[in-house]
Specification:
Helix content of chain A: over 70%
Strand content of chain B: 5-15%
Number of strands of chain B: 8
Distance between the termini of chain B: 81 Å
Largest sheet of chain A: none
Radius of gyration of chain B: 31 Å
Number of helices of chain B: 9
Strand order of the largest sheet of chain B: 1-5-6-7
Oligomer: heterodimer
Largest interface: A-B, 46 and 41 residues
Number of strands of chain A: 0
Structural class of chain B: alpha+beta
Largest sheet of chain B: 4 strands, antiparallel
Radius of gyration of chain A: 20 Å
Structural class of chain A: mainly alpha
Distance between the termini of chain A: 59 Å
Shape of chain A: flat
Shape of chain B: elongated
Strand content of chain A: under 5%
Helix content of chain B: 40-55%
Chain lengths: 187, 276
């Protein structure tokens, strides 16, 4: 039996499924272009780990743009993802170069603050129920419409999705605010 | 405390779901209301945190997805590809030299027939104390020279060697220097390190940085080769890419557009070296 990576899913189908937030299609795409995309970084002074990291980030950028409906494909998916990989790797190389200079300390300090804040919020998100988490992530990250969220999570209608989103967000805000004083949020 | 309506507007504002008109109106309100501004900061961070958590979740999912192994031999080959061409030239150049080899005038500048392993043999030639003893057998049996020290030969030479550096040198050197350089031209293993950079501004440029050749553009997408010709006085390098040859000036420090070689005679020779 000959393995055909393309069997069963053409470009259009992959993109349609990605646009609808189908994570299986994302995994499929990840495997399909893994070698091609990682090679780009590896042959440009990167390690395999860095290559994987860049490729994953690029795919997530693609995913986010596709699910939010902000992307109209005018080229092949691989071409688009390749260009994101190129941009991300270029930025990473620039960042490395910058870090070798005196900006290092400031950058680390800023990263630590942001990362600390994200950890706090991540802990609060963890306290939410599974459905709440999904509703908020689909709304804020995937930027799905209420109709799409209702369809994906099996809600009766968009009003249910809207109410759910409102309550979940309110709960998250309360959790975050209860743990930290206002100064923690000031830049 | 911000009203429920304001929080809704703020949410839509941060998600870019407001019309241009509503957006402007909300920004005015935001600027005039410190409490709302504070809520704006909080919400910005909460939404960013949510996005980051989701990003990490997707990343973890991809991380746990089984992927085909990166073929290290292919990767290595693609990295070494430019050197394969250069190495081939070393061998070709070696035999080519030996084939044409004839004795050179006695007392002339010591001939530069160097072991292939030496990348920059000129330094040795310039040091009289290190001049090797003539080895007649080595001259007549070129193959053995791989194990021999550089040799000094003693009879006139009638060598028709075409030196690719001629085109470049003609503008900067005297005919005598040019002539000397011509007879001493050789091909050796390229020791130029190459760094390919995909640059937004430069698409087909190059520069030398601390001895490293920086190629700006999508060179990784196709085969490229570096041909390095080492002479007594001057080393000249050429880039072969997409059926064209480009002269590389090692004194170039800022990204400079690659200019294809147009001299037909030179092109012909470069093609011959490469084809061999």
């Amino acid at each position: 039996m000959v393995y055909r990576p393309n069997s069963g899913m053409d470009e259009k189908e992959i993109f349609d499924r990605i646009r609808r937030g189908d994570e299986k299609a994302l995994e499929f795409l990840y495997k399909k272009y893994y070698r091609m995309m990682t090679k780009l970084v590896i042959t440009n002074s990167g390690t395999e780990e860095e290559a994987r990291d860049v490729y994953q980030d690029a795919l997530i950028v693609f995913w986010q743009k596709a699910t939010s409906g902000n992307l109209v494909m005018t080229s092949k998916i691989s071409t688009y993802i390749y260009s994101i990989c190129q941009n991300l790797w270029r930025k990473e190389l620039e960042r490395k170069k910058r870090l070798s200079n005196e900006e290092k300390d400031a950058a680390v300090s800023m990263d630590t603050e942001t990362s600390e804040r994200n950890k706090i919020i991540a802990r609060c998100i963890d306290q939410l129920g599974e459905t709440c988490k999904k509703v908020l992530m689909y709304y804020y990250f995937e930027e799905m419409s209420m109709q799409e969220i209702a369809d994906k999570l099996g809600f009766a209608n968009t009003d249910t999705a809207k109410t759910k989103k409102y309550k979940c967000k309110q709960k998250l805000d309360e959790l975050v605010k209860s743990q930290y004083s206002e100064k923690d949020f000031l830049d | 405390m911000a009203s429920e309506r304001d929080i809704e507007l703020l949410d839509d504002y941060l998600m870019n779901r407001l019309s241009a008109e509503d957006r402007v109106g909300f920004e005015k309100k935001l600027a005039a209301d410190p409490e709302l501004m504070q809520e704006f900061r909080i919400q910005t961070q909460v939404i960013e945190g949510l996005k980051e958590v989701r990003r990490m979740e997707l990343k973890k999912m991809l991380q746990n997805t089984a992927v085909p192994p990166v073929d290290s031999s292919v990767t290595l080959f693609s990295r070494l590809l430019p050197w394969v061409g250069a190495s081939a030239l070393v061998v070709i150049g070696f035999f080519w030299f030996n084939r044409l080899e004839e004795p050179v005038p006695s007392g002339s500048v010591q001939q530069a027939i160097h072991p292939v392993e030496k990348t920059r043999p000129t330094a040795e030639v310039e040091m009289p104390d290190e001049q090797p003893v003539l080895d007649e057998k080595a001259v007549s049996k070129p193959i053995q020279r791989k194990q021999e020290q550089p040799v000094k030969v003693s009879e006139p030479v009638k060598v028709e060697v075409y030196d690719p550096t001629q085109e470049i040198s003609a503008e900067t050197t005297t005919p005598a220097e040019l002539s000397a350089q011509r007879t001493e031209a050789g091909i050796s293993k390229s020791n130029i390190t190459v760094n390919v950079i995909d640059h937004k501004k430069y698409s087909q440029h190059y520069a030398f940085e601390n001895g490293t050749l920086m190629l700006y553009g999508p060179f990784e997408k196709n085969l490229y080769e570096i041909l390095e010709f080492i002479g007594e006085e001057k080393t000249t390098a050429f880039l072969y890419y997409k059926n064209s040859f480009y002269k590389l000036d090692t004194s170039i420090r800022i990204p400079t557009k690659l200019v294809p070689v147009t001299n037909n005679a030179l092109l012909q020779k470069l093609k011959e070296y490469r084809a061999q």
